[in-house]
Specification:
The protein has 127 residues and is of the alpha+beta class. Helices cover 40% and strands 19% of the residues. A hairpin with a 4-residue loop joins strand 1 and strand 2. It is elongated.
Length: 127
C-alpha cells in the first residue's frame, strides 16, 4: 500500500505570499528592468519593476512606463533579451554579458541581434 501524503496548505500559502518571496521577486524584476533599460538604445528609464500580492501568491513583472519603451521592446526586444538578468547570477556556462549589433539583411531590414548571430548569418550568406 502506498503512503499517503498530506500537504500543509497553510505553509504553502505563507511561502507563496511571504515577505521573503516578495523581496526576492522584486529584486529579480528590478535586475530585469535595469538590464532592459541598458538594452534600450536610447538609454531611457522606460522599464520598471512591479510586484503585487494576489489572492494565492506574489507576482512580479516588468512594465513599460512610456511609449518609447514599448517601441524598444517591439523593435529591439529590449525586455525579452533582459530576462536572464532575473536568474540571480545563475549562469548556463559562459558570461551573461552579450554584445548586440544592428544587422541589415539582404532585404534591407535592420534588426538588433547578438554579435554571434550576426557572425553566423554573415558566414552562411558568404558576406
Amino acid at each position: 500500500m502506498t503512503a499517503k501524503i498530506k500537504f500543509n496548505n497553510k505553509a504553502f500559502t505563507e511561502l507563496l505570499k511571504g515577505d521573503a518571496t516578495r523581496t526576492d521577486l522584486f529584486a529579480r524584476a528590478k535586475r530585469i528592468a535595469e538590464a532592459a533599460n541598458a538594452n534600450d538604445s536610447r538609454g531611457g528609464e522606460g522599464f520598471a519593476p512591479s510586484v503585487r500580492t494576489g489572492s494565492t501568491r506574489v507576482r512580479s513583472s516588468v512594465i513599460t512606463t512610456n511609449w518609447e519603451a514599448r517601441v524598444a521592446e517591439a523593435k529591439h526586444l529590449a525586455l525579452t533579451r533582459a530576462i536572464d538578468a532575473g536568474r540571480g547570477g545563475v549562469s548556463r556556462g559562459g558570461t551573461n554579458e552579450v554584445e548586440y549589433v544592428d544587422y541589415t539583411n539582404k532585404a534591407g531590414k535592420t534588426t538588433r541581434i547578438t554579435a554571434k548571430q550576426a557572425a553566423n548569418y554573415r558566414r552562411r550568406s558568404g558576406g
